[in-house]
């Protein structure tokens, strides 16, 4: 009897140890969840915006997850578990895609929802892994490998062919300022002050938010350039606007890079990734969860959630 009890306890202990070894499903913080820290912030923000545009056009949800290690769990089982717990894709359509990259184990997988298995077949998913992502990863170009792999998925779902590169998917055209002529407005000083307070109050506020907010700041940096290049002309004329634009283009990244080295910024960035929210200067920023999240079809950029879709294990896995 004692031997039987000891055997049961040993079996339970081993089973518990095995469960503990399995990688936990991480927090869904957005369309690109870089828990392995292999991508640059600018690449994450650009790819997130491109995947959001694809979802707005098609309702398909394409999500990226990177983790350092799966702690012994197979990438197939883990990807399927994450996909279904996050509920990627729309309920009833199951039109979600999960791209998982595990750099320490040199493994990756494209998990395909039921509803997209006819469009993104196992063979096509395997081709993306072998022909698009793996060559980039062998060169330690994780920005390029993840981005081009995800955009190749988007390409196929929108009826195009392989292979393509990330350059073919730029979300926005660069704006040219070369056509601007000298623009100075004859305006009373009190009008300039009032308009200046309004204009600089708005774009100044967004500039400060971008500098102090982890993860979202580089998108705001690019987004605000056209505003700094045009709105101040009403107040300070074209030459003054050019000076302000140069100060903004140089000063913003310098301030951002300086602040990101501070301990409170690092803590806030970690809290956003692990808890979904962070407190900065008395303000709480949320990347998801109740109160700060938005549904899969929302136009807000503050958070992200799955739509209730599921996967039955379709897709492909590979290494590099």
Characterization of the model:
The chain is of the alpha/beta class. The chain has helices at residues 2-21, 41-58, 75-86, 122-138, 142-157, 189-212, 217-230, 233-259, 263-274; strands at residues 32-34, 61-66, 96-102, 107-112, 277-280, 283-286, 314-319. A five-stranded mixed sheet has the order 1-2-3-4-7, with helices on both faces. Strands 5-6 form a two-stranded antiparallel sheet. β3 and β4 (107-112) form a beta hairpin. α4 runs antiparallel to α5. The N and C termini lie far apart (51 Å).
Task: Present the secondary structure layout.
Blueprint lengths: L1 H20 L10 E3 L6 H18 L2 E6 L8 H12 L9 E7 L4 E6 L9 H17 L3 H16 L31 H24 L4 H14 L2 H27 L3 H12 L2 E4 L2 E4 L27 E6 L1
Parallel strand pairs: 1-2, 2-3
Antiparallel strand pairs: 3-4, 4-7, 5-6
Mean pLDDT, all residues: 76
Total beta strand runs: 7
Q: Which percent range describes the beta-strand content?
A: 5-15%
The dominant shape is elongated
Kindly name the structural category: alpha/beta
End-to-end separation = 51 Å
How are the strands of the largest sheet arranged? 1-2-3-4-7
Question: Gyration radius, to the nearest Å?
Answer: 24 Å
Task: Give me the strand/helix succession.
Answer: HEHEHEEHHHHHHEEE
| Tally of individual helices | 9
Give the helix proportion (percent range).
40-55%
Sheet having the most strands: 5 strands, mixed
Poorly predicted tracts of residues: 4-9, 14-21, 168-184, 288-302
């Amino acid at each position: 009897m004692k031997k039987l009890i000891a055997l049961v306890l040993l079996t339970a202990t081993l089973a518990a140890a095995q469960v503990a070894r399995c990688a936990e499903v991480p927090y869904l913080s957005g369309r690109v969840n870089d828990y392995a820290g292999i991508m640059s912030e600018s690449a994450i923000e650009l790819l997130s915006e491109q995947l959001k545009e694809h979802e707005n056009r098609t309702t398909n949800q394409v999500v990226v997850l990177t983790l350092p290690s799966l702690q012994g769990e197979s990438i197939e089982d883990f990807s399927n578990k994450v996909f279904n717990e996050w509920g990627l894709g729309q309920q009833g359509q199951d039109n979600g895609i999960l791209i998982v990259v595990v750099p320490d184990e040199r493994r990756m997988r494209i998990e395909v929802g039921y509803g997209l298995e006819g469009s993104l077949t196992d063979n096509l998913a395997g081709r993306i892994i072998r022909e698009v992502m793996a060559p980039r990863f062998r060169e330690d170009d994780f920005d390029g490998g993840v981005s081009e792999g995800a955009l190749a998925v988007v390409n196929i779902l929108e009826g195009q062919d392989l292979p393509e590169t990330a350059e073919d998917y730029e979300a926005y055209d660069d704006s040219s300022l070369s056509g601007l002529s000298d623009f100075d407005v004859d305006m009373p000083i009190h009008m300039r002050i009032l308009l200046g307070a309004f204009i600089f109050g708005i774009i100044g506020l967004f500039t400060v938010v971008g500098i102090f907010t982890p993860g979202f700041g580089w998108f705001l940096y690019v987004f605000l350039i056209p505003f700094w290049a045009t709105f101040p002309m009403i107040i300070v004329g074209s030459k003054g606007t050019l000076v302000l634009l140069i100060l903004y283009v140089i000063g913003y990244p310098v301030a951002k890079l300086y602040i990101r080295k501070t301990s409170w910024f690092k803590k806030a960035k970690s809290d956003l990734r692990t808890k979904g929210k962070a407190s900065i200067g008395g303000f709480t920023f949320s990347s998801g969860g109740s109160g700060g999240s938005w549904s899969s079809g929302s136009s807000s950029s503050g958070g992200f959630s799955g739509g209730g879709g599921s996967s039955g294990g379709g897709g492909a896995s590979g290494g590099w």
